[in-house]
Structures are given as structure tokens and as C-alpha cells.
Specification:
155 residues; mainly alpha; Substrate Binding Domain Of Dnak, Chain:A, Domain 2
Length: 155
């Protein structure tokens, strides 16, 4: 049941990304957008790990690995975004301030989630906590990638 829930969560987040990217009513373009946006390689890796070890600990470890991979992606995109700003120190400072604020939010949100799940009984809540933490990092990585795409597209 937990595995189905996690697959549903991944599928729902992937579909929301695909739908957000669809701005062309042309059916062929929509189909191509969905087929290319369906599964990010990191999400595929996490799904493979979830499938490989379906124990609670295996699921938690798979999600922790996913968080690490998304954090690496976030850092890669952040550095690429800084680089794309070139000599524009105002943009770099704004990004740095935004990222520092996001890190504070991330840490506070993770503590909040830990407090919530500490009130629950059952090992499945360890999986939910790990999944929620992954989604926080993944969302920021995707957000920064969108900023990079938008900035480089217009320059």
C-alpha cells in the first residue's frame, strides 16, 4: 500500500510538472511535452530503488538517496544560474539572498514535519517524512531550473 502511495505521489508531481509546461494546445506538442516531462532521471532512480527494497528501511533509504540526488541537482543548477548572471552582481546578490532564505525555510519546514510525524504511530510515517523532505528539495531544484531556463532564453 505504501509503495502504491509513493508511486502515486511521484506520478502526481510529475504530471503537475508536465501540465504546467503545456502552453500549446497543439495535440502533437502536448503529447511530446508529456512524454519528455514524465519522469526525471532522478525520479526514475528513486522509483528503481523503491522497487528494489520494499521494506520500510529500504523505502526510507531510497527517498534519502533521492533527496541527496535532488540536492546535488539543486546545487548544480544554482551554480549554473550564478554563472549565467555573468557580471551582474545585483542579480547574484538577489539570488544568494533568496537561496539563503529558502535554506532557512527548508530547515524550518523539515523541523515542522518532524514534529508532526513524531505525533504519529507507525513506521509508515518515516516514509512520509522522507518523501516530504525530498519534495521540498526537488521543488526548489525545479524552480531554479525554471529561472535558469527563463533567464537564458531571454538573453
Amino acid at each position: 500500500m505504501i509503495r502504491k502511495f509513493l508511486y502515486f505521489c511521484f506520478f502526481a508531481s510529475i504530471c503537475s510538472i508536465a501540465l504546467a509546461q503545456i502552453d500549446n494546445p497543439d495535440a502533437a506538442a502536448v503529447s511530446e511535452t508529456i512524454s519528455t516531462a514524465i519522469i526525471h532521471p532522478i525520479d526514475q532512480k528513486v522509483m528503481d530503488l523503491l522497487e528494489a527494497d520494499q521494506s520500510t528501511n529500504g523505502q526510507v533509504q531510497a527517498l534519502f538517496k533521492g533527496s541527496e540526488l535532488w540536492d546535488e541537482e539543486l546545487n548544480r543548477v544554482y551554480k549554473e544560474l550564478v554563472k549565467s548572471y555573468g557580471k551582474n552582481e545585483e542579480l547574484k546578490t538577489a539570488l544568494k539572498n533568496a537561496q539563503n532564505a529558502w535554506i532557512k525555510f527548508r530547515d524550518a519546514e523539515q523541523m515542522h514535519l518532524q514534529a508532526i510525524f513524531a505525533t504519529k504511530e507507525g513506521t509508515m510515517y518515516r516514509i512520509f517524512l522522507a518523501s516530504d523532505n525530498l519534495e521540498i528539495i526537488k521543488s526548489r531544484a525545479i524552480e531554479l531550473q525554471k529561472r535558469l531556463d527563463d533567464f537564458t532564453e531571454s538573453n
